[in-house]
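Anyone? Bumping this.
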Amino acid sequence: MDIRHQIGSAIGTERPRRRSRLHAATTAVGTACVAGTASVPAHAAVAQPARPPGPSSPDRIQALAALTPPATRPFATTGPSHATSGGWL
Amino acid sequence: MTQEGWTALGARVQLVVTDPARLEQGRDLLTADLAAAVAACDALTPGSELDTLNRRQTESPADGSGPVRSVPVSPLLAEAIAVALRTASLTNGDLDPTAGSDDASAATLLRPVPRWHQIHLDPGSRLLQLPSGVRLDLVPTARAWAADRAAARLASALSCGVLVGLGGDIAVAGPVPRGGWRIRIQEASGEPPRGPYTIVAIRDGGVATSATAARRRRNGTDLLRHISDPRTGLPAAPFWRAATVAAASCTAASAAAATAMIRGRHALEWLSSLRLPARLVGLDSRVYTVGGWPAVAA
């Protein structure tokens, strides 16, 4: 299997709108760490503190009790994406 | 950024982690995890457990009229089958793990499609009861299940946030990046993808898209046969160009998206009843959203 991975790094683009550009530039440092992406620019932000296991924990998968919505609704955003969902293979 | 050669279950793999120091370890873990899933569940991989099981089934009448066979299966295949059967139940058979198992000959299409409720799996003994001649096709659920499973396992092993994407079925687990996991929703056309898109952020669960434009074939087999109507074995009448769903897991999101494609005009009502955030694109490119799917960011 020919596997070629690339690891990139970039400056995160997430910043509160009310902050000045200068302030944002000095605080919004992100780290991109992506493997296996094909063409999508990936920018991962600084991780927040760990949370309890989410809905995609193994127990939940095995149960798959129902087709339920996520705990947190998706919200609109802008900027570089981490991944793409386009229905392709 | 380009990457070649890394596919699993017939899909391109995406891996993102929030801790760059964990990326290499995560890649190795994911590669091994997906290889195990392929070895167990990919019917299109010669010699896989499911391929072997299906080949033995071809020795019997394909209409399911033969005697029921009891077959012990591995823990991984048992889990994949359990997910497929549960999904079939939740979608009222729209995603039938026996649908699409037959060839596309006219004779095949004229006979009843074997139904998922003919299959029984004892989770304790992992003994699968399968009518002779009935083959399993886990394509409708295996990718999303594998993404969920891998994301959860990697997040636990790496102690960081993880996103695993398999052909557009995306699962996330663990700590969330600031601003959430940003997912670009776009119908695939070209490389890199071009055309209109929207970006949403999720914090848990998964996102999946089914799209008619994304049909691909591998080894002569349509990998998106789950967009076929299992009741007829024929492709579902096109009503949507694409359906994207966010759910508590990638498995649920993928099942809902594929089912929406099958249910056509009834999909919006069905998704609303489940309160699933979803974005559907009509054949005229008009976009419909339900379940609190976010409006496009300014």
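Late reply, but here is one note on the structure posted above: Chain B touches chain A through 110 residues (CB under 8 Å).
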